[in-house]
Amino acid sequence: MKQPNILFIMSDDHAAHAIGCYGSVINRTPNIDRIAEGGMRLDNCFCTNSICAPSRAGILTGQYNHLCGVRTLNERFNGRQQTFPKMLQAAGYQTAVIGKWHLGHGGDADPTGFDYWNVLPGQGEYHNPRFFNMGAKTKKDGYVTDIITDLSLDWLRRRDREHPFLLLCHHKAPHRPWEPDDKHARMYEDEEILEPPTFAGDHSGHARAARAAKMRIEDLNPIDTKGRPPRGLSAAEKKRWKYQRYIKDYLRCIASVDDNVGRLLDYLDEDGVAEDTVVIYTSDQGFFLGDQGWFDKRFMYEPSLRMPFVVRYPREIAPGGACGDMALNIDFAETFLDYAGLDIPASMQGASLRGVLRGETPPGWRTSMYYRYWMHKDNPHNVWAHYGIRTHEYKLIYYYADKLDTPGPFYPSRGEPGRPEKPEWELFDLKKDPLELRSVYGLPEYETITARLKDELYALKDRFGDKM
Question: 39, 234, 277, 417: which could form a disulfide with 423 (CB 3.0–4.6 Å)?
């Protein structure tokens, strides 16, 4: 079988529960849904660190962040290390990345392994954005989501058809601050978006770390909400007002992404290469859409841990499928290499999803995953650093540092904290409490499962070489 083309579309902060095919009740995404209808939807795809740059570095390298070197937003990516674009390029693929990079610029931090790259500086702007076009500073008039798609289509039209292509089309949207385009600016204007069931978010059933976080809907600023609440509102009314202003702009940005996904899918059809192209839509992590009373991500709770992942490849993936097998962002690199017929390096820590996407769970497939959020300093949302394990039934989280803490040997022996900052544990029974409203850590009836999960957590920590 010949090597397929690969079109990897990734947005920023697009929660799975704001996508139609994932059962969203607050918006519609007909073009992203086209991918799922023509292929497979993964219902348990998770990131290993729910923050932008670390997730992107993990995707490129197939490694956890302590190995690929990007644990926080402040660490630049070292482009000299092995990545799946480099390997595909060496195997004859034409490669390009267009849109958000967010892994640093200049020297070794610039994109490597790409025949063409045209990326936003840092987070980039929604309107009239600047780009680094192969390192040269340029500026484009218009809306960033449209421009990224325009550049992607232009590259596809100019490609050498004698070789397969790898295109990373990476959207800025719907990252904060949410600035929709004119086409969608009045969308939802006469509607009230449904509040999530956990909107109250008092965190009485959570660790202190959750109560300390500064990412409540009330913490949204006038830039986020495009103005201040009217006078005379109660605290609850102000919160509802801010939520409606936030969520509508967030969904408007997604509507533009969905339109532009449709443009790319239409091109593949018109060009006659849809059958030979693996198309993926995902996001670098999830996002809180008022869930637990929050916006943003970072925590190991489901809304930010869970990533959307839909894929279409007509030659191999049956249409309309859904799979509950556990997938991770560090599996993406191995999956692309597998489709290209290349060997997967032993240094990569994930596994190819190719069998999973065919509906064939590989023998010994993972039933648990390891997560670590490192940003215990310089963190505007005061989200404490933590790590944990998620299985299909339970989630165990260990909070070891607030933002004022300094790095140290965060490795309690088999779960005994022994640190002066009074670290905390949380345990959630995901079958009985899927919304993660109340930790059951310390309850006598969960002692046996807690001990087993701690052993498994530290076994995973050892397996992946995380010694801190």
Answer: 417
The answer for residues whose C-beta is within 8 angstroms of residue 455's C-beta and 6 or more apart is 414
In tens, the pLDDT along 367-393 reads 999 999 998 766 789 999 999 999 999
| 171 vs 414, residue with greater confidence | 171
Q: Which of 367, 398, 414 corresponds to the end of one domain?
A: 367
In single-letter form, the type of residue at position 165 comes to F
Nearest C-alpha neighbor of 332 from the set 80, 9, 22: 9
Q: Do residues 347 and 63 touch, judged by C-beta distance below 8 A?
A: yes
Check which CATH number belongs to the domain holding 288 and give it. Answer: 3.40.720.10
Q: How far is CA 227 from CA 87, 224, 242, 284, in A?
A: 48, 8, 9, 29
The rounded distance, in Å, linking the Cα atoms of 22 and 307 is 11
How many CB atoms are closer than 10 A to CB 69? Answer: 15
Q: What is the dihedral of CA 309, 310, 311, 312, to 10 degrees?
A: 180
Inter-residue contact 25 to 16 (CB < 8 Å): no
Domain that holds residue 103: 5-180+245-367
- Note if the pTM is more than 0.85: yes
For residues 124 and 3, what is the distance between their CA atoms, to the nearest angstrom?
33
Burial, 174: exposed, middle or buried (Cβ in 10 Å; 0-12, 13-18, 19+)? buried
